Amino acid sequence: MFPSPEPVEADAPICSAKGCRAAAEWVLAWNNPKLHTPDRRKTWLACEEHREHLSQFLGVRGFLKDVVALAEWESRQGGTGD
Ligand SMILES: [Zn+2]
Questions:
Q1: Which backbone phi and psi does 57 adopt, to 5 degrees?
Q2: What is the count of structural domains for the chain?
Q3: I want to staple 66 with a disulfide (CB 3.0 to 4.6 A). Which of 14, 29, 30, 79 is the partner?
Q4: What separation in Å is there between the alpha carbon of 39 and the centre of ligand 1?
């Protein structure tokens, strides 16, 4: 543990969009079939503003598998998946 100069919520997830520091509200689950086995899921976090932009980025490449509200995603973790 070391002191932080500014108050930061310890594990508040931040949007994955470049330069964005907004709190993430969405999880984009994706998979690049050239790099990943089919059941592998990479995740990007997105704030409300960037959800569509990031979804499109993945979608046009055919990578996007799922878009889930962060709270729901977290509740799924430890579940059985599909
Ligand atoms: Zn953002």
A1: -55, -45
A2: 1
A3: 29
A4: 27
